Amino acid sequence: MNSPGPAQATALLDQLDGVIDSFEALQRYLDDVVHVVAAEVPGCDAVGITLVADGKATTAAYTSAVTLDIDAMQYALEEGPCLEAHETKQVVRAELDEAYDRWPRFTDAAQEEKTRALIAYPLLAGGTSVGALNLYARSASALAGTDDVVMLAAGAHVGRVVAAGLKVIEARELAGQLEQALASRAVIEQAKGVLMGRHGFTEVEAFDLIKKQSQRTNIKLRLVARSIVDDATGSQLPSAGQAVD
């Protein structure tokens, strides 16, 4: 997003409007946010949202699972750009090849990752941060032109929507639900990997197969995915057009 005009900035904020009255509505809203931002910011390869509830940081939404390892490193080590943006309520820009002095343990752990640049914007509501909006890029210079003024406004907009929703959802309950949602996503990613690796499905085909099986059997998506992962060494799985037995 290089020097957008007022109309472009307003259009972005309009796309980030939402009303949250349940955990499910919160999850849908955050999923929409990361995909809208990814589409609007040039050079951005992935977008994620860190929420901090009951003192615990969790990746609540993301456009690419490849960023989950980087987020997990930050949470485990208690250092890194996403956490710093939340704690300081400031924009944090990081080129990971040059960030050792700032976050030595995180930078060491992140060396194997393909992400080379990261910008984190605090999700502010009334002077309080509820997390961070995180942009990731594989090129160190890809996010250099990102407009911090617009993205700070976007982060504040999302922060206000989320904060209003948190008044409806108990913070302690939210922390547990976010953890459960992340675990469900992880097993779905594993199941997709099984189908892609064994049968050459695309990511979309693999997810579509899991979803159709869930709908056909009226079994939750995560349970279908868990069955595929558990049976990965068992009988041959069907083609993309067939049901999972």
Automatic annotation (TrEMBL):
GO molecular function, one term: kinase activity
Keywords of this entry: Kinase, Transcription, Transcription regulation, Transferase
Keyword Iron tagged: no
Domain of life per record: Bacteria
Keyword Transferase in record: yes
UniProt cross-references to InterPro entries, sorted A to Z: ANTAR, CheY-like_superfamily, GAF, GAF-like_dom_sf, GAF_ANTAR, WH-like_DNA-bd_sf
Residue span, ANTAR domain: 168-229
Ranges that cross the membrane: none
Protein name: GAF domain-containing protein
